[in-house]
Amino acid sequence: MKASSSKILPEDSGPRYSAPALEKGLDILERLAEERLPLSQVELSQALGRTANEIYRMLACLEERGYVVREEASGKFRLSLRLYELAHKHNPTTQLRRAARMPMEALAEETGQACHLSVLHGRSLLVMMERMPLRQICLAVGEGAVVSLLKSSSGRMLLSRMDDVDDFLASVPEFTALSLSAKKQFTQELVAIRDQSSLVAGSDVTAAVSDIVAPVGVRGTDTFAILASCCLIGPESDGKTLKRYQKAVVECAAQINRNLGITP
User: Fold this and answer.
1) Residue 156: closest CA among 169, 145, 139, 146
2) Which residues are registered as beta bridge partners of 146?
3) Is 58 exposed, middle or buried (0-12, 13-18, 19+ CB in 10 A)?
4) Is the pTM of this model over 0.70?
5) pLDDT tens digits for 102-148?
6) How far apart are CA 176 and CA 166, in angstroms?
């Protein structure tokens, strides 16, 4: 096999391939998205450090493809709804399921425990996907099950990632029914796990079961979910095995994020 004469770039040398035209077009789209008011060709060229000629060609192409609109009165440019249209053709639920299917199957086989993926559903948690190991006795949570946010490890992990969690909890009857001390204790627990990449806790529902949970996706969006593995091991019974399972769950979550195109 003939060796290539091209140089191999080091990992820290930046992008391997350059696409100047694409980069110019993306720069324009990103800049217009940041601005509340339309921008002229000159304003865009100054903001992006590009020549007016470069900007003109890119704007002409983007306008022809329907990504930007030129206002008749001012001649300035703004984004159209084309990007919005494309984004909504990409169903986040389908995207999550595709990204998670194979990593979750691998996780179930590696640990011998079932795992599931849950998303926010109103004021509860909905299990949207489950994977079980072959030829194993395990604890399973069926797809379509609706679970309490307050009484599940997945729910607490999801709540801990909310920016407006106090306002949200104020609308959850299960939370508002708690005593003041119980409310304080629960919110303190959310603060304690907010920055944790994963959580291991005893199940609120079943004795001698440990829940291992980790977030996946982008919080605050429809692609945010919680990966969970319900292990038939008590929290104090086998710490070494639990740590191994926890590592496997974290690695599975990382693979799902990579499949979604999310980098650390």
Assistant:
1) 169
2) 126
3) buried
4) no
5) 999 999 999 989 999 999 999 999 999 999 998 767 777 888 889 99
6) 11
Angle, vertex CA 235, rays to CA 231 and CA 240, nearest 5: 80
**pLDDT above 70 coverage of the chain, percent:** 88
Domain 90-259 has CATH 3.40.910.10: no
> What pLDDT is stored for residue 15 in this prediction?
56
| DSSP alpha helix (H) spans, the chain | 20-34, 41-48, 52-64, 82-89, 92-111, 153-160, 165-169, 173-176, 180-193, 239-259
Integer Cα distance of 68 and 60 in angstroms: 9
Least-confidence region, from 76-80, 133-137, 178-182, 250-254: 133-137
Tokens standing for residue 128: 């949207």
CA–CA separation, 18 vs 9, rounded Å? 13
CA 2 to centroid of chain Cα atoms: 42
Tell me which of 1.10.10.10, 1.20.120.660, 3.50.50.60, 2.40.110.10 is the CATH number of domain 20-87.
1.10.10.10
How far is CA 116 from each of CA 28, 223, 226, 245, rounded to the nearest angstrom?
A: 40, 15, 8, 14
Residues of the chain with CATH 3.30.450.40: 90-259
Residue 203 CA neighbour count, 13 Å, CB half: 18
String of DSSP letters for 195-253: T-S-EEEE-SSSTT-EEEEEEES-TTSTT-EEEEEEESS-TTT-HHHHHHHHHHHHHHH
> What is the residue type of 229?
S
Where, residue-wise, is CATH 1.10.10.10 in the chain?
20-87
